[in-house]
Fold:
Amino acid sequence: MASSTEPSAGQPKGSKLIVGVALAAAVIAVVAVALLVNIMERKQEAKNPFYRVVELTDDTEDPAIWGKNFPLQYDGYRRTVDQVRTRFGGSEAVPKTPSGSDPRSIVAQSKLEEDPRLKAMWAGYAFAKDFREERGHAFMLDDQTYTERQIAAKQPGTCLHCHASVYVPYKKAGGGDLIKGFEKMNQLSFAEARKLVTHPVACIDCHAPDTMQLRVTRPGFLEGIRALKASQGIKDYDVNVSATRQEMRAYVCGQCHVEYYFKGPEKRLVYPWFKGLKVDEILAYYDEQKFSDWTHAETGAPALKAQHPEFELWNQGIHARSGVACADCHMPYKREGALKISDHHVRSPLLNINRACQTCHKIPEEELKARVETIQERTYRLRNLAMDALMDLINDLKQAKAAGKDNGQLDPARNMQRKAQFYLDFVEAENSTGFHAPQEAARILGESIDASRKGQIALRDGKPAAK
Amino acid sequence: MRAQDLLLVLSALAVGLAIGVSGFTFVYAKGASYLTDNPQACANCHVMSEQYGGWIRSSHRSAAVCNDCHTPKGFFAKYLNKSANGARHSWAFTTGWFHEPIAIKSHNREITESRCRDCHQEITDAIDPNHGQGAVLACIRCHGSVGHP
Structure:
Protein backbone atom coordinates (compact mmCIF):
# COMPACT_ATOMS: atom_id res chain seq x y z
CA MET A 1 0.00 0.00 0.00
CA ALA A 2 2.67 2.36 1.10
CA SER A 3 4.82 1.50 -1.89
CA SER A 4 1.99 2.23 -4.29
CA THR A 5 1.11 5.65 -2.83
CA GLU A 6 4.66 6.96 -2.81
CA PRO A 7 5.23 7.10 -6.55
CA SER A 8 1.71 8.41 -7.18
CA ALA A 9 2.47 11.31 -4.86
CA GLY A 10 5.85 11.98 -6.52
CA GLN A 11 4.69 11.39 -10.06
CA PRO A 12 3.15 14.81 -10.87
CA LYS A 13 6.11 16.60 -9.25
CA GLY A 14 8.62 14.52 -11.21
CA SER A 15 6.88 14.95 -14.53
CA LYS A 16 6.56 18.71 -13.98
CA LEU A 17 10.32 18.87 -13.52
CA ILE A 18 10.92 16.74 -16.61
CA VAL A 19 8.53 18.88 -18.70
CA GLY A 20 10.27 22.00 -17.39
CA VAL A 21 13.70 20.66 -18.33
CA ALA A 22 12.44 19.63 -21.75
CA LEU A 23 10.94 23.09 -22.39
CA ALA A 24 14.08 24.88 -21.23
CA ALA A 25 16.19 22.65 -23.45
CA ALA A 26 13.86 23.33 -26.36
CA VAL A 27 14.18 27.09 -25.84
CA ILE A 28 17.97 26.76 -25.71
CA ALA A 29 17.90 24.75 -28.93
CA VAL A 30 15.76 27.41 -30.63
CA VAL A 31 18.09 30.23 -29.55
CA ALA A 32 21.13 28.23 -30.58
CA VAL A 33 19.67 27.53 -34.02
CA ALA A 34 18.69 31.18 -34.46
CA LEU A 35 22.22 32.21 -33.55
CA LEU A 36 23.66 29.56 -35.84
CA VAL A 37 21.61 30.83 -38.76
CA ASN A 38 22.65 34.43 -38.00
CA ILE A 39 26.34 33.49 -37.88
CA MET A 40 25.98 31.54 -41.09
CA GLU A 41 24.40 34.54 -42.83
CA ARG A 42 27.22 36.80 -41.68
CA LYS A 43 29.81 34.33 -42.89
CA GLN A 44 28.09 34.12 -46.26
CA GLU A 45 27.97 37.92 -46.51
CA ALA A 46 31.67 38.16 -45.80
CA LYS A 47 32.45 35.46 -48.36
CA ASN A 48 30.39 36.80 -51.27
CA PRO A 49 30.67 40.52 -51.78
CA PHE A 50 28.20 40.29 -54.65
CA TYR A 51 26.23 37.90 -56.81
CA ARG A 52 26.44 38.27 -60.54
CA VAL A 53 22.85 37.91 -61.65
CA VAL A 54 23.14 39.96 -64.86
CA GLU A 55 25.98 40.44 -67.31
CA LEU A 56 27.21 44.03 -67.45
CA THR A 57 28.90 45.35 -70.56
CA ASP A 58 30.47 48.64 -71.60
CA ASP A 59 27.10 49.53 -73.12
CA THR A 60 24.91 48.86 -70.08
CA GLU A 61 23.68 52.34 -69.36
CA ASP A 62 20.65 51.75 -67.14
CA PRO A 63 21.70 51.89 -63.45
CA ALA A 64 18.74 49.64 -62.52
CA ILE A 65 20.47 46.76 -64.33
CA TRP A 66 23.72 47.37 -62.44
CA GLY A 67 21.56 47.53 -59.32
CA LYS A 68 20.62 43.90 -59.75
CA ASN A 69 24.22 42.93 -59.09
CA PHE A 70 24.83 45.63 -56.51
CA PRO A 71 21.53 46.18 -54.70
CA LEU A 72 23.07 47.83 -51.62
CA GLN A 73 24.99 50.44 -53.61
CA TYR A 74 21.98 51.00 -55.88
CA ASP A 75 19.72 51.62 -52.88
CA GLY A 76 22.04 54.36 -51.68
CA TYR A 77 22.34 55.85 -55.17
CA ARG A 78 18.55 56.12 -55.41
CA ARG A 79 18.42 58.01 -52.15
CA THR A 80 20.07 61.07 -53.72
CA VAL A 81 16.47 62.21 -54.25
CA ASP A 82 16.45 63.28 -50.58
CA GLN A 83 16.23 67.01 -50.02
CA VAL A 84 17.74 67.92 -46.68
CA ARG A 85 19.08 71.30 -45.61
CA THR A 86 22.29 72.01 -43.76
CA ARG A 87 23.12 75.41 -42.29
CA PHE A 88 24.65 76.74 -45.53
CA GLY A 89 23.90 74.10 -48.14
CA GLY A 90 21.50 71.37 -49.06
CA SER A 91 18.23 72.00 -50.82
CA GLU A 92 14.77 72.63 -49.56
CA ALA A 93 11.77 71.13 -51.34
CA VAL A 94 9.76 74.09 -52.64
CA PRO A 95 6.35 73.28 -54.17
CA LYS A 96 5.79 74.60 -57.68
CA THR A 97 2.80 74.54 -60.00
CA PRO A 98 3.73 72.46 -63.05
CA SER A 99 3.46 74.32 -66.34
CA GLY A 100 3.72 73.27 -69.97
CA SER A 101 7.40 74.10 -70.29
CA ASP A 102 8.31 72.93 -66.78
CA PRO A 103 6.45 69.88 -65.42
CA ARG A 104 8.34 69.84 -62.08
CA SER A 105 6.06 70.02 -59.04
CA ILE A 106 8.99 70.44 -56.62
CA VAL A 107 12.13 72.56 -57.05
CA ALA A 108 14.83 73.90 -54.73
CA GLN A 109 14.83 77.37 -53.16
CA SER A 110 15.88 80.28 -55.40
CA LYS A 111 19.26 81.76 -54.53
CA LEU A 112 18.38 84.92 -56.46
CA GLU A 113 15.50 85.57 -54.07
CA GLU A 114 17.71 84.87 -51.08
CA ASP A 115 20.31 87.38 -52.23
CA PRO A 116 19.17 89.86 -54.93
CA ARG A 117 22.76 91.17 -55.24
CA LEU A 118 23.43 88.08 -57.36
CA LYS A 119 21.13 89.52 -60.04
CA ALA A 120 23.21 92.68 -60.20
CA MET A 121 26.42 90.64 -60.37
CA TRP A 122 25.10 88.57 -63.27
CA ALA A 123 23.16 91.35 -65.07
CA GLY A 124 22.74 90.39 -68.70
CA TYR A 125 23.55 86.73 -68.14
CA ALA A 126 21.12 83.80 -67.99
CA PHE A 127 21.99 83.11 -64.35
CA ALA A 128 20.28 86.36 -63.40
CA LYS A 129 17.03 84.77 -64.58
CA ASP A 130 17.07 81.52 -62.62
CA PHE A 131 19.56 80.20 -60.11
CA ARG A 132 18.55 77.71 -57.47
CA GLU A 133 20.28 75.68 -54.80
CA GLU A 134 21.54 72.44 -56.35
CA ARG A 135 19.57 69.30 -55.57
CA GLY A 136 20.88 65.74 -55.34
CA HIS A 137 22.40 63.77 -58.23
CA ALA A 138 19.01 62.25 -59.05
CA PHE A 139 17.69 65.64 -60.22
CA MET A 140 20.65 66.83 -62.32
CA LEU A 141 19.09 66.08 -65.69
CA ASP A 142 15.58 67.40 -64.96
CA ASP A 143 16.81 70.55 -63.26
CA GLN A 144 19.03 71.44 -66.23
CA THR A 145 16.31 70.58 -68.75
CA TYR A 146 13.66 72.75 -67.13
CA THR A 147 15.63 75.71 -65.77
CA GLU A 148 14.49 79.10 -67.02
CA ARG A 149 18.05 79.65 -68.26
CA GLN A 150 17.06 77.47 -71.21
CA ILE A 151 14.50 80.10 -72.20
CA ALA A 152 16.73 83.10 -71.36
CA ALA A 153 19.53 81.94 -73.66
CA LYS A 154 20.09 79.14 -76.13
CA GLN A 155 22.04 76.48 -74.22
CA PRO A 156 24.30 74.08 -76.11
CA GLY A 157 24.43 70.27 -75.95
CA THR A 158 27.70 70.67 -74.05
CA CYS A 159 25.77 71.08 -70.78
CA LEU A 160 24.84 67.41 -70.87
CA HIS A 161 28.49 66.44 -70.35
CA CYS A 162 27.73 66.80 -66.65
CA HIS A 163 23.97 66.72 -66.46
CA ALA A 164 23.44 63.23 -67.85
CA SER A 165 25.06 59.85 -68.16
CA VAL A 166 26.91 60.52 -71.41
CA TYR A 167 29.46 57.73 -71.74
CA VAL A 168 27.27 55.44 -73.84
CA PRO A 169 25.56 58.27 -75.79
CA TYR A 170 28.96 59.82 -76.64
CA LYS A 171 30.27 56.48 -77.88
CA LYS A 172 27.14 55.96 -79.98
CA ALA A 173 27.25 59.48 -81.43
CA GLY A 174 30.93 59.09 -82.26
CA GLY A 175 30.53 55.68 -83.86
CA GLY A 176 32.48 54.09 -81.00
CA ASP A 177 34.83 57.04 -80.45
CA LEU A 178 34.17 58.79 -77.15
CA ILE A 179 35.91 62.05 -78.05
CA LYS A 180 34.28 62.27 -81.49
CA GLY A 181 30.86 61.81 -79.91
CA PHE A 182 31.71 64.48 -77.34
CA GLU A 183 32.65 66.94 -80.09
CA LYS A 184 29.53 66.10 -82.05
CA MET A 185 27.11 66.50 -79.14
CA ASN A 186 28.71 69.78 -77.98
CA GLN A 187 27.63 71.38 -81.23
CA LEU A 188 23.99 70.26 -81.04
CA SER A 189 21.40 72.42 -79.36
CA PHE A 190 20.50 71.34 -75.85
CA ALA A 191 17.07 70.15 -77.01
CA GLU A 192 18.57 67.98 -79.78
CA ALA A 193 21.27 66.55 -77.53
CA ARG A 194 18.76 65.98 -74.74
CA LYS A 195 17.02 63.38 -76.94
CA LEU A 196 20.19 61.28 -77.01
CA VAL A 197 20.49 60.85 -73.23
CA THR A 198 18.23 59.08 -70.75
CA HIS A 199 19.70 58.96 -67.25
CA PRO A 200 21.32 61.32 -64.78
CA VAL A 201 24.84 60.30 -63.70
CA ALA A 202 24.92 56.51 -63.54
CA CYS A 203 27.16 53.62 -62.49
CA ILE A 204 28.95 53.42 -65.83
CA ASP A 205 30.16 57.02 -65.57
CA CYS A 206 32.59 56.10 -62.77
CA HIS A 207 32.93 52.28 -62.85
CA ALA A 208 34.37 49.82 -65.35
CA PRO A 209 31.67 47.19 -65.91
CA ASP A 210 33.97 44.16 -65.75
CA THR A 211 36.09 44.97 -62.69
CA MET A 212 34.08 47.74 -61.00
CA GLN A 213 37.33 49.69 -60.88
CA LEU A 214 36.96 53.45 -60.82
CA ARG A 215 37.61 55.12 -64.15
CA VAL A 216 37.24 58.54 -65.71
CA THR A 217 34.86 58.58 -68.68
CA ARG A 218 34.24 62.28 -69.21
CA PRO A 219 36.34 63.92 -71.94
CA GLY A 220 36.45 67.28 -70.12
CA PHE A 221 38.40 65.76 -67.24
CA LEU A 222 40.51 63.45 -69.41
CA GLU A 223 41.74 66.52 -71.30
CA GLY A 224 41.78 68.88 -68.31
CA ILE A 225 43.96 66.71 -66.11
CA ARG A 226 46.30 66.06 -69.05
CA ALA A 227 46.72 69.82 -69.47
CA LEU A 228 47.29 70.27 -65.75
CA LYS A 229 49.90 67.51 -65.59
CA ALA A 230 51.58 68.92 -68.71
CA SER A 231 51.93 72.25 -66.87
CA GLN A 232 53.74 70.30 -64.14
CA GLY A 233 56.07 68.69 -66.67
CA ILE A 234 54.32 65.34 -67.06
CA LYS A 235 53.71 64.55 -70.70
CA ASP A 236 50.73 62.63 -72.14
CA TYR A 237 49.17 61.88 -68.79
CA ASP A 238 46.43 59.24 -69.02
CA VAL A 239 44.40 59.37 -65.83
CA ASN A 240 43.00 55.87 -66.29
CA VAL A 241 46.49 54.41 -66.47
CA SER A 242 48.53 56.51 -64.07
CA ALA A 243 46.23 57.56 -61.23
CA THR A 244 46.23 55.63 -57.95
CA ARG A 245 43.04 54.20 -56.51
CA GLN A 246 42.92 56.93 -53.85
CA GLU A 247 43.41 59.65 -56.47
CA MET A 248 40.59 58.15 -58.49
CA ARG A 249 38.31 58.48 -55.46
CA ALA A 250 38.60 62.25 -56.05
CA TYR A 251 39.08 62.32 -59.82
CA VAL A 252 35.79 60.63 -60.63
CA CYS A 253 34.05 63.47 -58.77
CA GLY A 254 36.32 66.04 -60.40
CA GLN A 255 34.87 64.93 -63.73
CA CYS A 256 32.11 67.45 -63.08
CA HIS A 257 32.56 69.43 -59.86
CA VAL A 258 34.94 71.88 -61.50
CA GLU A 259 35.29 75.29 -63.15
CA TYR A 260 34.89 75.14 -66.94
CA TYR A 261 34.12 77.16 -70.04
CA PHE A 262 32.80 76.56 -73.53
CA LYS A 263 35.59 77.22 -75.99
CA GLY A 264 35.01 78.73 -79.40
CA PRO A 265 32.07 78.41 -81.79
CA GLU A 266 32.23 74.61 -81.53
CA LYS A 267 31.35 74.98 -77.81
CA ARG A 268 34.03 72.57 -76.70
CA LEU A 269 33.97 71.99 -72.95
CA VAL A 270 37.39 72.94 -71.52
CA TYR A 271 38.65 72.88 -67.94
CA PRO A 272 40.93 75.94 -67.57
CA TRP A 273 43.80 74.16 -65.83
CA PHE A 274 46.61 74.96 -68.27
CA LYS A 275 48.52 77.00 -65.69
CA GLY A 276 47.26 75.32 -62.51
CA LEU A 277 44.18 74.91 -60.33
CA LYS A 278 44.33 78.13 -58.28
CA VAL A 279 41.91 80.94 -59.00
CA ASP A 280 44.77 83.26 -60.03
CA GLU A 281 46.09 80.69 -62.50
CA ILE A 282 42.64 80.14 -63.95
CA LEU A 283 42.00 83.88 -64.39
CA ALA A 284 45.43 84.30 -65.97
CA TYR A 285 44.50 81.61 -68.48
CA TYR A 286 41.16 83.28 -69.30
CA ASP A 287 42.92 86.65 -69.71
CA GLU A 288 45.41 85.06 -72.05
CA GLN A 289 42.59 83.49 -74.06
CA LYS A 290 40.74 86.86 -73.99
CA PHE A 291 37.72 84.87 -72.90
CA SER A 292 34.64 86.24 -71.20
CA ASP A 293 31.33 84.51 -70.54
CA TRP A 294 29.27 87.63 -71.24
CA THR A 295 29.36 91.43 -71.20
CA HIS A 296 27.91 92.89 -68.03
CA ALA A 297 24.65 94.62 -68.98
CA GLU A 298 25.05 97.62 -66.68
CA THR A 299 28.77 98.34 -66.81
CA GLY A 300 30.00 96.71 -70.01
CA ALA A 301 32.65 94.69 -68.15
CA PRO A 302 33.90 91.50 -69.87
CA ALA A 303 32.63 89.25 -67.08
CA LEU A 304 33.29 85.64 -66.07
CA LYS A 305 31.01 83.21 -64.27
CA ALA A 306 32.71 80.72 -61.95
CA GLN A 307 31.03 77.32 -61.73
CA HIS A 308 31.13 75.06 -58.69
CA PRO A 309 34.96 74.71 -58.46
CA GLU A 310 34.83 72.11 -55.67
CA PHE A 311 37.70 70.06 -57.08
CA GLU A 312 39.93 73.12 -57.43
CA LEU A 313 39.24 74.53 -53.96
CA TRP A 314 39.49 71.12 -52.24
CA ASN A 315 42.91 70.80 -53.86
CA GLN A 316 44.12 73.86 -51.91
CA GLY A 317 42.91 72.49 -48.57
CA ILE A 318 44.34 70.41 -45.76
CA HIS A 319 42.19 67.37 -46.55
CA ALA A 320 43.54 67.10 -50.07
CA ARG A 321 47.05 67.61 -48.75
CA SER A 322 46.51 64.75 -46.30
CA GLY A 323 45.34 62.43 -49.06
CA VAL A 324 41.66 62.50 -48.11
CA ALA A 325 39.52 62.12 -51.24
CA CYS A 326 35.99 63.33 -51.97
CA ALA A 327 34.57 59.85 -51.49
CA ASP A 328 36.10 59.51 -48.02
CA CYS A 329 33.71 62.14 -46.65
CA HIS A 330 30.89 62.28 -49.20
CA MET A 331 30.61 58.50 -49.70
CA PRO A 332 32.09 57.10 -46.47
CA TYR A 333 32.27 53.39 -45.79
CA LYS A 334 29.31 51.90 -44.01
CA ARG A 335 28.53 48.47 -42.66
CA GLU A 336 25.77 46.27 -44.02
CA GLY A 337 25.88 43.13 -41.88
CA ALA A 338 29.40 41.74 -42.27
CA LEU A 339 29.95 43.75 -45.47
CA LYS A 340 31.69 47.09 -45.74
CA ILE A 341 30.51 49.19 -48.68
CA SER A 342 30.93 52.81 -49.67
CA ASP A 343 27.75 54.79 -49.22
CA HIS A 344 26.40 55.67 -52.67
CA HIS A 345 23.96 58.12 -51.13
CA VAL A 346 26.26 61.03 -52.01
CA ARG A 347 25.50 63.94 -49.70
CA SER A 348 26.84 66.53 -47.27
CA PRO A 349 29.14 64.97 -44.65
CA LEU A 350 27.32 67.14 -42.10
CA LEU A 351 24.33 64.81 -42.48
CA ASN A 352 26.52 61.80 -41.70
CA ILE A 353 29.16 63.08 -39.30
CA ASN A 354 29.82 59.81 -37.50
CA ARG A 355 30.84 57.94 -40.63
CA ALA A 356 32.20 60.89 -42.60
CA CYS A 357 34.34 62.62 -39.95
CA GLN A 358 34.67 60.45 -36.87
CA THR A 359 36.51 57.69 -38.65
CA CYS A 360 39.55 59.99 -38.44
CA HIS A 361 38.55 62.71 -35.95
CA LYS A 362 37.79 60.97 -32.67
CA ILE A 363 35.92 63.83 -31.05
CA PRO A 364 32.19 64.34 -30.43
CA GLU A 365 29.79 65.00 -33.29
CA GLU A 366 28.62 68.32 -31.86
CA GLU A 367 32.19 69.60 -31.70
CA LEU A 368 32.90 68.56 -35.29
CA LYS A 369 29.74 70.23 -36.53
CA ALA A 370 30.60 73.40 -34.61
CA ARG A 371 34.08 73.50 -36.20
CA VAL A 372 32.65 73.25 -39.70
CA GLU A 373 29.97 75.83 -39.07
CA THR A 374 32.48 78.27 -37.58
CA ILE A 375 34.49 78.10 -40.80
CA GLN A 376 31.37 78.48 -42.92
CA GLU A 377 30.00 81.33 -40.79
CA ARG A 378 33.26 83.28 -41.22
CA THR A 379 33.43 82.58 -44.93
CA TYR A 380 29.83 83.69 -45.37
CA ARG A 381 30.43 87.01 -43.57
CA LEU A 382 33.45 87.69 -45.75
CA ARG A 383 31.47 86.72 -48.84
CA ASN A 384 28.81 89.27 -47.92
CA LEU A 385 31.44 92.00 -47.53
CA ALA A 386 32.92 91.11 -50.91
CA MET A 387 29.42 91.21 -52.42
CA ASP A 388 28.80 94.69 -50.96
CA ALA A 389 32.16 95.90 -52.25
CA LEU A 390 31.31 94.61 -55.72
CA MET A 391 27.90 96.32 -55.65
CA ASP A 392 29.65 99.61 -54.81
CA LEU A 393 32.01 99.22 -57.74
CA ILE A 394 29.18 98.32 -60.12
CA ASN A 395 27.20 101.38 -58.99
CA ASP A 396 30.20 103.67 -59.41
CA LEU A 397 30.83 102.23 -62.85
CA LYS A 398 27.21 102.77 -63.84
CA GLN A 399 27.36 106.38 -62.73
CA ALA A 400 30.66 106.98 -64.48
CA LYS A 401 29.23 105.48 -67.64
CA ALA A 402 26.10 107.63 -67.39
CA ALA A 403 28.31 110.68 -66.84
CA GLY A 404 29.75 109.99 -70.28
CA LYS A 405 33.22 108.67 -69.50
CA ASP A 406 34.88 106.92 -72.41
CA ASN A 407 36.11 103.37 -72.61
CA GLY A 408 39.70 104.39 -71.96
CA GLN A 409 38.65 105.70 -68.59
CA LEU A 410 36.21 102.89 -67.79
CA ASP A 411 38.22 99.86 -68.89
CA PRO A 412 40.67 99.67 -65.97
CA ALA A 413 37.72 99.64 -63.55
CA ARG A 414 35.84 97.12 -65.71
CA ASN A 415 38.85 94.87 -65.59
CA MET A 416 38.84 95.11 -61.81
CA GLN A 417 35.14 94.23 -61.79
CA ARG A 418 35.92 91.17 -63.90
CA LYS A 419 38.46 90.03 -61.34
CA ALA A 420 36.42 90.97 -58.25
CA GLN A 421 33.38 89.07 -59.35
CA PHE A 422 35.20 86.03 -60.67
CA TYR A 423 37.05 85.69 -57.35
CA LEU A 424 33.86 86.23 -55.36
CA ASP A 425 31.93 83.78 -57.52
CA PHE A 426 34.73 81.23 -57.13
CA VAL A 427 33.82 80.98 -53.44
CA GLU A 428 30.10 81.73 -53.84
CA ALA A 429 29.52 79.03 -56.47
CA GLU A 430 31.69 76.54 -54.64
CA ASN A 431 29.51 74.22 -52.60
CA SER A 432 31.35 74.05 -49.27
CA THR A 433 31.03 77.70 -48.14
CA GLY A 434 34.78 77.76 -47.68
CA PHE A 435 35.18 74.47 -45.84
CA HIS A 436 37.14 72.67 -48.56
CA ALA A 437 40.01 75.15 -48.06
CA PRO A 438 39.17 77.79 -45.42
CA GLN A 439 42.24 80.02 -45.66
CA GLU A 440 42.32 79.90 -49.43
CA ALA A 441 38.63 80.86 -49.54
CA ALA A 442 39.34 83.80 -47.22
CA ARG A 443 42.33 84.87 -49.33
CA ILE A 444 40.22 84.77 -52.50
CA LEU A 445 37.46 86.86 -50.92
CA GLY A 446 40.04 89.29 -49.56
CA GLU A 447 41.52 89.72 -53.04
CA SER A 448 38.02 90.18 -54.44
CA ILE A 449 37.40 93.05 -52.01
CA ASP A 450 40.78 94.50 -52.95
CA ALA A 451 39.92 94.34 -56.65
CA SER A 452 36.64 96.18 -56.03
CA ARG A 453 38.55 98.81 -54.09
CA LYS A 454 41.13 99.21 -56.85
CA GLY A 455 38.33 99.50 -59.41
CA GLN A 456 36.82 102.40 -57.45
CA ILE A 457 40.22 104.06 -57.18
CA ALA A 458 40.72 103.69 -60.92
CA LEU A 459 37.45 105.54 -61.46
CA ARG A 460 38.27 108.22 -58.91
CA ASP A 461 41.76 108.94 -60.15
CA GLY A 462 40.49 109.00 -63.70
CA LYS A 463 38.25 111.96 -62.82
CA PRO A 464 39.28 115.40 -64.05
CA ALA A 465 41.33 117.22 -61.46
CA ALA A 466 38.80 120.07 -61.20
CA LYS A 467 36.64 117.98 -58.90
CA MET B 1 4.69 5.09 -15.15
CA ARG B 2 4.92 4.64 -18.92
CA ALA B 3 3.86 8.22 -19.55
CA GLN B 4 6.64 9.37 -17.28
CA ASP B 5 9.16 7.21 -19.12
CA LEU B 6 8.06 8.79 -22.37
CA LEU B 7 8.49 12.24 -20.86
CA LEU B 8 11.93 11.25 -19.66
CA VAL B 9 12.96 10.06 -23.10
CA LEU B 10 11.57 13.20 -24.76
CA SER B 11 13.26 15.55 -22.35
CA ALA B 12 16.50 13.62 -22.71
CA LEU B 13 16.12 14.11 -26.47
CA ALA B 14 15.47 17.82 -25.97
CA VAL B 15 18.47 18.22 -23.69
CA GLY B 16 20.64 16.27 -26.10
CA LEU B 17 19.43 18.35 -29.01
CA ALA B 18 20.13 21.57 -27.13
CA ILE B 19 23.62 20.39 -26.20
CA GLY B 20 24.27 19.19 -29.73
CA VAL B 21 23.05 22.30 -31.51
CA SER B 22 24.74 24.63 -29.03
CA GLY B 23 27.94 22.64 -29.30
CA PHE B 24 27.86 22.74 -33.08
CA THR B 25 27.15 26.50 -33.03
CA PHE B 26 30.08 26.98 -30.67
CA VAL B 27 32.44 25.13 -32.97
CA TYR B 28 31.01 26.69 -36.13
CA ALA B 29 31.40 30.17 -34.63
CA LYS B 30 35.01 29.33 -33.69
CA GLY B 31 34.04 29.71 -30.03
CA ALA B 32 37.24 28.15 -28.75
CA SER B 33 39.35 30.74 -30.56
CA TYR B 34 38.07 33.39 -28.16
CA LEU B 35 39.79 31.63 -25.30
CA THR B 36 43.16 32.07 -26.95
CA ASP B 37 45.42 35.12 -27.43
CA ASN B 38 45.31 34.86 -31.22
CA PRO B 39 44.56 38.36 -32.60
CA GLN B 40 42.76 36.89 -35.58
CA ALA B 41 40.01 35.74 -33.23
CA CYS B 42 39.17 39.39 -32.50
CA ALA B 43 38.47 39.97 -36.19
CA ASN B 44 36.40 36.78 -36.65
CA CYS B 45 33.20 38.70 -37.28
CA HIS B 46 34.95 41.47 -39.31
CA VAL B 47 33.81 44.33 -37.07
CA MET B 48 37.37 44.68 -35.82
CA SER B 49 38.94 44.25 -39.25
CA GLU B 50 40.10 47.86 -39.38
CA GLN B 51 41.65 47.67 -35.92
CA TYR B 52 43.26 44.36 -36.79
CA GLY B 53 44.59 45.76 -40.06
CA GLY B 54 45.86 48.82 -38.21
CA TRP B 55 47.63 46.71 -35.60
CA ILE B 56 49.40 44.67 -38.29
CA ARG B 57 50.94 47.93 -39.54
CA SER B 58 51.53 49.45 -36.10
CA SER B 59 54.67 49.74 -34.04
CA HIS B 60 53.32 47.29 -31.47
CA ARG B 61 52.63 44.39 -33.82
CA SER B 62 55.74 42.52 -32.74
CA ALA B 63 55.51 43.54 -29.08
CA ALA B 64 51.91 43.01 -28.05
CA VAL B 65 48.73 41.28 -29.24
CA CYS B 66 45.15 42.46 -28.59
CA ASN B 67 44.88 40.77 -25.23
CA ASP B 68 48.13 42.26 -23.94
CA CYS B 69 46.62 45.73 -24.01
CA HIS B 70 42.88 45.09 -23.81
CA THR B 71 42.59 42.61 -20.94
CA PRO B 72 43.64 43.12 -17.33
CA LYS B 73 46.50 41.30 -15.62
CA GLY B 74 45.78 38.02 -13.85
CA PHE B 75 44.07 34.87 -15.05
CA PHE B 76 40.66 35.40 -13.44
CA ALA B 77 40.48 39.13 -14.13
CA LYS B 78 41.42 38.46 -17.73
CA TYR B 79 38.75 35.86 -18.42
CA LEU B 80 36.10 37.76 -16.47
CA ASN B 81 36.79 40.79 -18.65
CA LYS B 82 36.86 38.69 -21.81
CA SER B 83 33.52 37.07 -21.04
CA ALA B 84 31.84 40.35 -20.11
CA ASN B 85 33.09 42.08 -23.28
CA GLY B 86 32.46 38.97 -25.36
CA ALA B 87 28.83 38.74 -24.24
CA ARG B 88 28.27 42.44 -24.94
CA HIS B 89 29.95 42.27 -28.34
CA SER B 90 27.99 39.17 -29.41
CA TRP B 91 24.74 40.81 -28.43
CA ALA B 92 25.63 44.03 -30.24
CA PHE B 93 26.81 42.34 -33.42
CA THR B 94 23.91 39.86 -33.60
CA THR B 95 21.26 42.52 -33.09
CA GLY B 96 23.14 45.19 -35.04
CA TRP B 97 22.44 47.69 -32.25
CA PHE B 98 25.72 49.56 -31.87
CA HIS B 99 27.10 53.01 -32.59
CA GLU B 100 29.48 53.53 -35.46
CA PRO B 101 32.31 54.18 -35.55
CA ILE B 102 32.81 51.81 -32.62
CA ALA B 103 34.46 53.32 -29.54
CA ILE B 104 36.09 51.86 -26.45
CA LYS B 105 34.15 51.94 -23.14
CA SER B 106 35.71 53.97 -20.33
CA HIS B 107 36.32 50.93 -18.12
CA ASN B 108 38.20 49.22 -20.94
CA ARG B 109 40.16 52.38 -21.65
CA GLU B 110 41.36 52.35 -18.04
CA ILE B 111 42.55 48.78 -18.55
CA THR B 112 44.43 49.78 -21.69
CA GLU B 113 46.06 52.71 -19.92
CA SER B 114 47.23 50.49 -17.08
CA ARG B 115 48.62 47.97 -19.56
CA CYS B 116 50.69 50.68 -21.28
CA ARG B 117 52.12 51.50 -17.89
CA ASP B 118 52.87 47.88 -17.07
CA CYS B 119 55.45 47.69 -19.83
CA HIS B 120 56.56 51.32 -19.99
CA GLN B 121 56.65 51.94 -16.25
CA GLU B 122 60.12 53.39 -16.21
CA ILE B 123 59.13 56.13 -18.61
CA THR B 124 55.70 56.86 -17.17
CA ASP B 125 57.07 57.01 -13.63
CA ALA B 126 59.50 59.63 -14.83
CA ILE B 127 56.81 61.65 -16.60
CA ASP B 128 53.97 61.64 -14.07
CA PRO B 129 55.57 63.68 -11.25
CA ASN B 130 56.49 66.48 -13.65
CA HIS B 131 52.87 67.29 -14.31
CA GLY B 132 51.78 68.31 -10.86
CA GLN B 133 49.58 66.63 -8.35
CA GLY B 134 46.25 65.29 -9.54
CA ALA B 135 47.14 65.63 -13.22
CA VAL B 136 45.72 62.68 -15.10
CA LEU B 137 47.80 61.79 -18.10
CA ALA B 138 46.75 59.34 -20.76
CA CYS B 139 49.38 57.70 -22.97
CA ILE B 140 47.14 57.51 -26.03
CA ARG B 141 46.28 61.18 -25.89
CA CYS B 142 49.56 61.71 -27.73
CA HIS B 143 50.45 58.19 -28.84
CA GLY B 144 47.08 57.43 -30.38
CA SER B 145 48.24 55.17 -33.15
CA VAL B 146 50.82 52.96 -31.47
CA GLY B 147 48.42 50.04 -31.18
CA HIS B 148 46.19 50.78 -34.12
CA PRO B 149 44.72 54.02 -35.48
Q: What stands out?
A: The longest strand of chain A covers residues 333-336.
